[in-house]
Write a structure and sequence with these properties.
Layout lengths: L1 E2 L3 E5 L5 H10 L1 H4 L4 H6 L6 H14 L3 E7 L5 E9 L4 E8 L8 H14 L7 E7 L3 H9 L3 E6 L5 H5 L11 E7 L5
Parallel strand pairs: 5-6
Antiparallel strand pairs: 1-2, 2-3, 3-4, 4-5, 6-8, 7-8
């Protein structure tokens, strides 16, 4: 469990299934390109408990650390932030907030807490990575505010069937930027 001035970040519990699903379900259009795997894994409320159980298993094995984000004052669930250890001392961070929670500094507050967690035990990363679409100026501002610097560009992958479809109205995806923060004394 990680606590900040306004937020509580903690692993999900089985009783969080309804809040977890509801936020995802209301955010499907906004999250479809950034978190497609999460949306596919939780298409219904009935599938949410299995996903939360998988998160708990991942936490126990150290494969993936997924935390829900709650407002300390009200207990309202507002989003999700995760950290996935990778090779060579790197860990990747991903997060999303409910639309109503954006613009209040919650992403910066949650990211600061997860950076401390990522550089500390049990992860002990030397480098943290955030990937975001090049047209997502809000996510870029959050990353920069926490000391992440742009490192490169990755072209967004589009399935072959999409390139051949005349009927699909899905807009082309923007390239993906990589933002990196290296461990420094005091982290």
């Amino acid at each position: 469990m990680l606590a900040t001035v306004r937020l509580l970040l903690r692993p999900y519990e089985p009783t969080d299934a309804e809040a977890f699903f509801t936020l995802l379900d209301h955010s499907r259009a906004r999250l479809q390109y950034s978190f497609p795997d999460r949306l596919r894994a939780v298409p219904t409320l009935a599938s949410a408990p299995a996903q939360l159980a998988a998160f708990a298993d991942d936490w126990r094995t150290g494969r993936f650390y997924v935390l829900g984000i709650w407002l300390r004052e009200t207990g309202a669930y507002i989003g999700d932030i995760c950290l996935m250890p990778q090779r060579n001392g790197q860990a990747e961070i991903g997060y999303y907030l409910a639309a109503s929670a954006e613009g209040h500094g919650y992403a910066r507050e949650a990211l600061a807490a997860v950076c401390r967690f990522g550089f500390g035990r049990p992860v002990e990363a030397q480098r943290l990575l955030i990937r975001c679409f090049a047209d997502n100026k809000k996510a870029q501002a959050v990353a920069r505010a926490l000391g992440f610097t742009p490192q490169g560009l990755e072209e967004a992958k589009q399935p072959a069937w999409l390139r051949l479809s005349f009927w699909d109205s899905r807009p082309p995806q923007a390239p993906i930027l990589h933002f990196v923060r290296h461990w420094a004394a005091g982290d």
